[in-house]
Structures are given as C-alpha cells and as structure tokens.
Amino acid sequence: MNQPDPERIALVIAAHPDDGDFGCAGYVARLARDGWATTFLVCTNGAKGTEDRDMPRERLISLRRDEQREACRRMGAGEVLFLDNEDGELAYDRSFLESIVRVIRTVRPHTVFTHDPTDIIIRDSFINHPDHRATGTAALDAVYPTARDHLNFPEHLDEGLEPHKVRRLLLWGSNHPNFDVDITDDVDIKIDALTAHVTQFGNREDFVTFSRERWKDENGRYIEQFRKIDLQF
Q1: What are 32-47's pLDDT values in tens digits?
Q2: What's the CATH number of domain 6-230, 3.40.50.10320, 2.40.240.20, 3.40.50.2000, 3.40.50.10090?
Q3: Torsion-angle region of 157 (φ positive above 0: left; ψ -120 to 50: alpha; else: beta)
Q4: What angle do CA 90, 10, 118 make, to 5 degrees?
C-alpha cells in the first residue's frame, strides 16, 4: 500500500459534525483531487443538534456520525474520527488536549484546519459557539507546542507515537482572514457534502440557496476564507 506524501496530509479538527464541512469542504475537495489525504476529527457527539423533540439521543448521535462519514465521502476526505465529548459541554482540559495531540501524532499532518477561537463575535453576524472556541484553542495548543515536544505525554512514545511538527494552520470562522481559496469549481461538492447532514438541514428548502449566497463574493466567485499561519520553525 502506498504511503501518502507527508507534504500532502491534512487534518480537520471540528467541534461538531458539519462544522468542518461549513469551514473547508470546498478546499478539501480540491486537495483531494491534488492527491491529499485528509482525516476529519470530530470532537463532540453531536447529541444536541436537532429541533426534533421526538428524536432519541442515541439515534441522533448515530445518525450524525453516519452523516459526517457520508459528507466526507462526498468531498473526497478519508477517515473520520470521533472523540465523543458531550455536545454543548466541551471543556478544554488536559485530557482533551491529549486526545488531539494523539491524533496529530498518529495522522502526522502537514496542514491542520480548525476553528478560529480568538473571538466570541464573528463578523458581527455570528456568536462563536463555546464548543468551537474550546476546540480551536485545544487544537492550536496541540499543534504548538504540545505535539512537538516529547516531554508532553511521554507515554505516547511507548505506543510508537513520535512528536510531530505541523507546518500550516488554516482557521475558518475568523475575523482576520488572510487567505482566500476560490472554490467556484467545487461549491457544488461543498453543498452536496453539507446536505448529507439530513438531521440538520433536511427540512430547510432554502438551504442550498442560502449556502450559495453565503460563499459568493462581489465578483460572483465562491470563496472560502481562512486565517493562514505558516509555522516557521
């Protein structure tokens, strides 16, 4: 079996099912065509993501897992991992940090996509969910410095998990984007991935229209925006 090019490995770290699809599915689809291997890590169980009061909790968790796997298949991503922390109650602690560091040391990504945790209000339009902020903060701390230093979680060494240096961070949902990706050729794939999340958007007839308008710029092109951080050492 061919090993992936270490310069073409990406990891998406998202708080909930569908977060990564909103944030970067268009770019992930393009990277997939360019030979990148992308893993998704979902940090909560998605247990609170429904307006259906008759939906059993365990059924919702199972459905949202299946939806995320299908969304990743549609965009060309690979493995999907779940940490199963409680939706809406995610707390940044040492255990949560360790679980992300473990995945980074296993996947060994060149590029990590995740939430920008630095602001509570996003573009005067959205409140940055506390699970998003906890996930983004833990992901950034995992990338630097924790995953790099063998003295952090040295028990990983006994499992064959060596320290790892991520080279690029791409943060979605940022008030300070500095990197635009034209996803015009892939916007239909992005929307197709999002519509896999039937428990979230199945009853919204306006969802496709809303999605198209959300990512369209003044020139009629479709754009995903990120805060890009290239780590220099």
Answers
A1: 999 999 999 999 999 9
A2: 3.40.50.10320
A3: alpha
A4: 40
CA–centroid distance for 106 within its chain: 17
- Mean per-residue pLDDT for 97-107? 98
- The single-letter code of the amino acid at 227 is R
Written as one letter, the residue type at 177 is P
Q: Give the pLDDT of residue 157.
A: 98
Torsion angle (degrees, nearest 10) of CA 70, 199, 84, 10 = 40
Rounded Cα distance between 59 and 82, Å, is 16
d(CA 1, CA 15): 31
- Contact between 94 and 100 under an 8 Å Cβ cutoff? The reply is no
